[in-house]
Amino acid sequence: MYITDFAGRTAFVTGGASGIGLGIAKVLAQRGARVVIADLRSDHIDNALAQFAGGGRSNAVTALQLDVTSREAYAEAAARMQADFGGIDILVNNAGVGLEGPVLQATYADYDFGFGVNIGGVINGFVSFMPQMIAHGRGGHIVSTASLAAEVVMPAHLAIYAASKAAVCHYCEAVKDELGSHGLGVSILLPGPIKSNIHQAQQNRPEHLRIGSGFGESEAQLAQRQVGDSWMEPEEVGNMVADGILANRTYIVTHGIFKDWQRARAQAVLDATPDVADAAVRGI
Ligand SMILES: NC(=O)c1ccc[n+]([C@@H]2O[C@H](COP(=O)([O-])OP(=O)(O)OC[C@H]3O[C@@H](n4cnc5c(N)ncnc54)[C@H](O)[C@@H]3O)[C@@H](O)[C@H]2O)c1
């Protein structure tokens, strides 16, 4: 039973206290869901909860501090959702870090940070919540935030980011049918430029992964980047996500500005692919 209405549903939104996640949380709450914001940063959580105050909306929103890379903390959060709400109905695996830097200077600290949050955090969400979402039998939906960076060939300084987001896409595509047979829809959010605090990657990096990082300088520069006026508002993304959940849309794409690059990448793979007849000759 897929999601057809948000009323009475419980949504768990990681990275829900800022940017895109907060936009999604706001729209889901407006449309009648009970929303749990899960975020690493208590300053973001305080700011987000203040935005829900008044008008009765605060009753529908709670928050918990969670580092999505911690499997133990994630398991505890899932157990709490089971106890408090009989399990969640919508999981939004949105927490991510926009790390970038000179790839030849990247160390394992940088790989562990980027892959740890951007794909590790998503996998922890699936592993922690899939059992309860299947067991409660109400059906539901899992949205995971990738990036249009996963769909085009990115420059080398974004290699770790792009690779981690590509992994999110392929995992979600692969599990969609299987989860569908249990009444769970699956969507991948592919955003272009959205107004957010993604330039604050350095502040989200744990101390043990700062040591030995080759990205210190580039992350300090990134922290100075201004948010573009023309970038999309997070609540507009939130509405696209809410509509995408109701339609069980596989891909929720915010912008068409990279379409030529998306097509070029897909075409290059096709151009390198032998014709079907060749495969038949080899007996595959
Ligand atoms: N803003 C864009 O232009 C853009 C484009 C494509 C994809 N994205 C993706 O969108 C998602 C949301 O990013 P955003 O742009 O809203 O940035 P943001 O920094 O405003 O929001 C991300 C939130 O995730 C939280 N977070 C970071 N690490 C965490 C962790 N380990 N555990 C729990 N929470 C953590 C942060 O505290 C923050 O509140 C990310 O996955 C990002 O990669 C953003």
Sheet of most strands: 7 strands, parallel
Element string (H = helix, E = strand): EHEHEHEHEHEHHEHH
**What average pLDDT do the residues reach?**
96
Task: Compute the number of helices.
Answer: 9
Distance between the termini: 37 Å
* Classification by helices and strands: alpha/beta
Strand order of the largest sheet: 3-2-1-4-5-6-7
Identify low-pLDDT runs: none
Structurally, the number of domains stands at 1
Just give the CATH class: Alpha Beta
CATH topology: Rossmann fold
Helicity level: 40-55%
Shape: globular
Q: What's the alpha carbon Rg, rounded to whole Å? A: 19 Å
Q: How many distinct beta strands?
A: 7
CATH superfamily: NAD(P)-binding Rossmann-like Domain
CATH second-level architecture: 3-Layer(aba) Sandwich
Percentage beta strand? 5-15%
The distinct bound ligands, ions and cofactors come out as:
nicotinamide-adenine-dinucleotide
Description:
The chain is an alpha/beta fold and 284 residues long. It has one domain: NAD(P)-binding Rossmann-like Domain (Rossmann fold, 3-Layer(aba) Sandwich). It has helices spanning 19-30, 42-52, 71-85, 108-135, 159-180, 216-222, 234-246, 259-271, 276-281; strands at residues 10-14, 34-39, 61-65, 90-93, 140-145, 184-190, 251-253. It has a seven-stranded parallel sheet, sandwiched between helices. Strand 5 (140-145), helix 5 and strand 6 form a beta-alpha-beta unit. Helix 3 (71-85) packs parallel to helix 4. It is globular, with a radius of gyration of 19 Å. The chain starts with 9 loop residues before the first strand and ends with a helix. The model has no long low-confidence stretch (mean pLDDT 96). The structure holds nicotinamide-adenine-dinucleotide. Residues 14-15, 17-21, 39-41, 44, 66-69, 94-98, 117, 121, 145, 147, 191, 193-194, 196-198, 200, 204 line the site of nicotinamide-adenine-dinucleotide.
